[in-house]
UniProtKB/TrEMBL annotation:
Belongs to the peptidase C2 family. Keywords: Calcium, Hydrolase, Metal-binding, Protease, Repeat, Thiol protease. Residues 2-135 form the Peptidase C2 calpain domain. It comes from Bugula neritina. This is Peptidase C2 calpain domain-containing protein.
């Protein structure tokens, strides 16, 4: 949940912080960079709209760690360290996505609202061409590298079969699809969980269109 924030204010550091480590550059990248796509999505905003509340203006900032830091980054860190990258914009939409080319290393992603003292439930999705590790930073116990690394969940064979069947139907004889078709395929496979619905902007960010 967003605790509160203003990028330039004293409350920004109290937002949730997520540590992302990338180690292997893309295979076809001559600049030794790693592709990372971030998608920040507000949850339950439809219910909020029914209550007369609008979408919050959201976005995120990415900070590169020069050395290992335990626990949350504090106020002084943000005062003296500029962000390495940001979301393309802070905007009042359900999802904000960005495609970033990062050097191998460890980064902290801080999602936030644009205005201070606003709260919301959210989902932060991290995609990378090569394997990456992502974890939330716990304010009380700090970053536990040994026990809390994010790992891919077990593959659901039913979902895989659904993806394969839907891809075959949509791709046609050339076995190729565009971003719109990829979105439809993913949403068909995960339609049982509306919170995982994939937006077109996220798909386009993943494929670089």
């Amino acid at each position: 949940m967003f605790i509160c924030s203003s990028y330039a204010g004293n409350t920004f550091w109290t937002n949730p912080q997520y540590r992302v480590s990338v180690t292997d550059p893309d295979d076809d990248d001559d600049d030794n960079l790693c592709t990372v796509v971030l998608g920040l999505m507000q949850k339950d905003r439809r219910k909020k709209r029914e209550q007369g509340l609008d979408m919050l203006t959201i976005g995120y900032c990415i900070y590169k760690l020069k050395e290992e830091v335990d626990g949350n980054l504090d106020l002084n860190f943000f005062k003296y360290n500029a962000s390495h990258a940001k979301s393309p914009t802070f905007i009042n939409t359900r999802e904000v996505c960005g495609r970033h080319m990062l050097e191998p290393g460890t980064y902290v992603v801080v999602p936030s609202t644009f205005s201070p003292n606003e709260e919301a439930d959210f989902v932060l999705r991290v995609f990378s061409e090569k394997a990456a590790e992502a974890d939330s930073v716990d304010e009380d116990t700090g970053y536990d590298d040994s026990s809390r690394k994010a790992r891919a969940p077990p593959i659901d064979s039913a979902v895989v079969d659904k993806l394969r069947d839907t891809f075959t139907k949509i791709s046609g004889d050339d076995m190729e699809i565009d971003a719109y078709e990829l979105r439809d395929i993913l949403n068909a496979a995960y339609k049982q969980d509306p919170e995982l619905k994939v937006s077109l902007i996220l798909v386009k960010s993943c494929v670089g269109t």
